[in-house]
UniProtKB/TrEMBL annotation, chains A, B:
It comes from the Bacteria. The keyword Repressor does not apply. Belongs to the PurS family. Gene3D superfamilies: Phosphoribosylformylglycinamidine synthase subunit PurS. Keywords: ATP-binding, Cytoplasm, Ligase, Nucleotide-binding, Purine biosynthesis. InterPro entries: PurS, PurS-like_sf. GO terms for biological process: 'de novo' IMP biosynthetic process. Part of the phosphoribosylformylglycinamidine synthase complex involved in the purines biosynthetic pathway. Catalyzes the ATP-dependent conversion of formylglycinamide ribonucleotide (FGAR) and glutamine to yield formylglycinamidine ribonucleotide (FGAM) and glutamate. The FGAM synthase complex is composed of three subunits. PurQ produces an ammonia molecule by converting glutamine to glutamate. PurL transfers the ammonia molecule to FGAR to form FGAM in an ATP-dependent manner. This is Phosphoribosylformylglycinamidine synthase subunit PurS. It comes from Poseidonocella sedimentorum.
């Protein structure tokens, strides 16, 4: 089974990487880009039957810094 | 409107970041993690009516290195 984890900076936390992308898109001539947020996506290849809660635990312990980042787990 | 872009390393391209995560999960006692791939997710806040092709162009020109990375665009 596969699980996909999205880790994004929480709203209000400054995202310099996203800002850099926004500026670069503007410089390339793309108009109408109002905001960019960049995060991580982690695809996990897990043993069959791993419960979703285990993936949540992985996020809490390693994958996300829950002080500034939020995460979502999706079983695919 | 919002668009979400996923950028992942192509299959066969070495992913040291993903490997590091896999080892760390093992060290934390999580068993059954057979593989980890790490990529980027970019959330774009765009002007209404921006066509999906424009987002594809942004990926080709800036967001993804198409030599080693593949991308997918999702309008949300």
């Amino acid at each position: 089974m596969k699980a996909r984890v999205h880790v994004m900076l929480k709203t209000g936390v400054l995202d310099p990487q996203g800002e850099a992308v926004r500026h670069a898109l503007g410089a390339l001539g793309f108009t109408g880009v109002e905001g960019v947020r960049q995060g991580k996506v982690i695809e996990l290849d897990l043993a069959e039957g791993t419960p979703e809660e285990t993936v949540g635990e992985m996020c809490e312990k390693l994958l996300a810094n829950t002080v500034i980042e939020s995460y979502s787990v999706e079983i695919v």
